[in-house]
Design brief:
Largest sheet: 6 strands, mixed
CATH class of the largest domain: Mainly Beta
CATH architecture of the largest domain: Beta Complex
Number of helices: 6
Number of domains: 3
Oligomer: single chain
Number of strands: 26
CATH topology of the largest domain: RNA Polymerase Alpha Subunit, Chain A, domain 2
Helix content: 10-25%
Shape: elongated
Structural class: alpha+beta
């Protein structure tokens, strides 16, 4: 037994200690990291394929292909090349300067876009060559129609406040491009829903338009304005006027006056008076319909009135020759 232990002991001593093993693996790892770092820091010339996303296409056309691919000969560091290949982000090219090739095709000079493309890459990356240098894109022409815009709103006012007028949009209508079959059925565009509560001040905001599949809009957003004011409610006694009463006839009304309840901006309170309202009955209603009661009709009111009610709505009458 002692002889076996004596044989194993020299072998155990010959093996490296744990500390030496850790140092050895650390040295190997460090060497690998330095080697990779050296390789990645060097400059290389490679050909890489990038996907292209086309921007700024004219609204009146529809590109038959939204994306294409091009080959770029790049001079870049290893780490930059590795990044491009791991994270393949499409490059963007504007069609603002594209030239029309024929009725259904436009031509893009990609070489002229070199500066724009390099700005989307790392600072040290240089584009040596672009292939193809010129490309053609086919398109289909779209129909056009000017369409009004309707605001989709849910507005709750603070008590005592109302809108002075309906919501104003700028622009009120825009050009819409798309297939004729869809445009023919389109009567209006709508905005994305706009909800606001406790409104007591005028509103000015930007509203996005509700997108419609296969259609392109001249503008994607509109400016909305809604004038808000504090309102008051007042009651006025107004005499009823007669219309179309023949000479020699007398018409007596019961009652001769109506009570008018008007809602309007508080700022207009000092300007408004009972004589600003004209309510009438028409003698012709008696002749044509032989009515026992005459309908009271509103003929004149101030244009800033928000709501108007009057009572009674009809009156009895006594006709004398």
């Amino acid at each position: 037994m002692k002889t076996e232990q004596n044989d194993i002991l020299p072998l155990t001593r010959a093996l490296p200690s744990r500390g030496r093993l850790r140092f050895f693996f650390f040295f190997v790892l460090l060497s690998f990291v330095l080697w990779v770092s050296t390789k990645l820091s060097k400059s290389y010339t490679v050909v890489d394929t990038f996907e292209i996303e086309w921007l700024d296409a004219p609204k009146s056309i529809f590109l038959n292909q939204n994306k294409s691919s091009i080959d770029l000969t790049l001079q870049a560091s290893g780490i930059e090349i590795l990044w491009y290949r791991l994270f393949r982000k499409p490059l963007e090219i504007s069609l603002a300067t594209a030239s029309e090739q024929n009725e259904h095709s436009i031509q893009v000079n990609l070489t002229a876009q070199r500066y724009s493309l390099e700005n989307q890459l790392f600072d040290n990356t240089q584009i040596q060559q672009i292939s193809p240098s010129i490309t053609s894109l086919s398109y289909s022409k779209l129909g056009a129609k000017k369409v009004p815009i309707l605001a989709t709103t849910a507005i709750e006012f603070r008590p005592g406040y109302l809108s002075v007028s309906s919501i104003q949009l700028e622009p009120e209508a825009i050009e819409v491009y798309g297939p004729i079959s869809i445009l023919d059925t389109l009567s209006a565009l709508t905005t994305m829903p706009f909800e606001v509560k406790d409104v007591h001040e005028s509103i000015q905001t930007t509203l996005s338009l509700e997108p419609i599949s296969e259609l392109k809009f001249e503008k994607e957003q509109v400016t909305a304005f809604l004038a808000i004011d504090q309102f008051t409610e007042q009651v006025y006694e107004v005499g009823i006027e007669l219309r179309n009463l023949p000479k020699g006839k007398k018409l007596r009304l019961f009652p001769p006056r109506v009570s008018v309840k008007a809602t309007f901006p508080l700022s207009e309170l000092k300007r408004i008076k009972a004589s600003d309202f004209v309510l009438v009955v028409d003698y012709n209603d008696i002749v044509e319909d032989s009515k026992e009661e005459l309908e009271i009709k509103l003929e004149v009111q101030p244009n800033f009135i928000k709501q108007l009610f009057w009572t009674p709505k009809t009156v009895n009458y006594l006709l004398r020759e």
